């Protein structure tokens, strides 16, 4: 069995991060500062938009932004090291089509696209499960990802990688360095209302 298959079985199933040592090792090895990061799998243009997009999904507040916990680097590395060639091609093809729509929608080139522009684009193209993905409805047999499916893939990666990152796990969520203990009591008292890290 090759490494991609092993990591996929251990870690991300249908784009949901499961906190295994392998996936956590990959996630926590992503430590490059966002402005110094160079994508290994994505193109430079895709990487620039990804950095801006993840910070629209998870902007800086009292908590760190997605880029501050290296979410773009993780997404890039995961796609390089775990995705099969067919999945890589499907994603990059959908990402390129999404970039064309983004530039069309904003009437701006990638360097000039700001968070506000991305917010408007996401409002127009990111669909929830209950909303109709017109692109999919028009072509139900299309084997690739629609723009909405591509954006949802990025969003799920972003959120899962964020809450699984070491910084968020240890500093924001309820963290127990020796998991497995049974705690009896009110959950709000035990965790101050926080979700358990790595659960």
Concise synopsis of the structure shown:
With 199 residues, the chain is an all-alpha fold. The protein is built from 10 helices and no strands. The two termini are 28 Å apart.
How much β-strand is present in the residues? under 5%
What overall form do the CA principal axes indicate?
A: globular
- One letter per element, helices H and strands E, the order comes to HHHHHHHHHH
Q: Report the biggest beta sheet as strand number plus sense, adding barrel if it closes.
A: none
| CA distance, first residue to last residue | 28 Å
Helix content: 40-55%
Count up the helices.
10
**Using only CA atoms, what is the Rg?**
18 Å
Mean pLDDT: 78
Whole-number count of domains: 2
Counting helices, strands and paired strands, the structural category is mainly alpha
């Amino acid at each position: 069995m090759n490494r991609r298959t092993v990591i996929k079985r251990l870690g991300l199933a249908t784009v949901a991060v499961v906190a295994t040592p392998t996936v956590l090792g990959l996630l926590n090895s992503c430590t490059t500062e966002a402005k110094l990061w160079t994508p290994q799998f994505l193109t430079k243009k895709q990487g620039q938009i990804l950095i801006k997009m993840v910070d629209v999904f998870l902007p800086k507040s009292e908590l760190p932004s997605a880029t501050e916990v290296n979410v773009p680097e993780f997404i890039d590395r995961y796609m390089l090291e775990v995705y099969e060639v067919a999945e890589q091609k499907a994603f990059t093809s959908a990402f390129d089509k999404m970039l064309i729509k983004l530039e069309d929608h904003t009437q701006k080139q990638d360097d000039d696209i700001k968070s506000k522009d991305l917010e408007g684009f996401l409002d127009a193209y990111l669909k929830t499960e209950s909303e109709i993905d017109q692109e999919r409805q028009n072509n139900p047999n299309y084997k690739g990802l629609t723009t909405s499916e591509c954006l949802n893939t990025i969003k799920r990666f972003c959120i899962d990688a964020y809450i699984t990152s070491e910084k968020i796990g240890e500093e924001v969520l309820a963290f127990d360095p020796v998991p497995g203990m049974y705690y009896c009591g009110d959950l709000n008292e035990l965790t101050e209302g926080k979700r358990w890290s790595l659960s």
